[in-house]
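Project standup — Tuesday

K.O.: blocked on the structure for the chain from last sprint. Re-posting the sequence here as requested.
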Amino acid sequence: MLHAGMDTVTVRVVPRSGRSAVLEEADGTLTIRVRAAPVDGAATREATKLLAAHYGVAPSAVRLRIGNRSRVKVFEIDR
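H.V.: unblocked you, prediction finished:
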């Protein structure tokens, strides 16, 4: 869900999925399924790339703000 007036988005990351995808739920929340395991930040890196593609920005424009070791993460997006 993209926060109004801010450039942050809260997502739920599901590691070790069969396929990588960004899913927007009916209530507006985002779920990011990644194939990577949650080891050494691999799942977070893959989620960052998928989120950047979803919003049409460069991966360098997406930064993790909160949730380094959590499944629920807050990303900051430069537009």
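K.O.: great, moving the ticket to review. The chain has a mean pLDDT of 90. The first strand starts at residue 8 and ends at 14.
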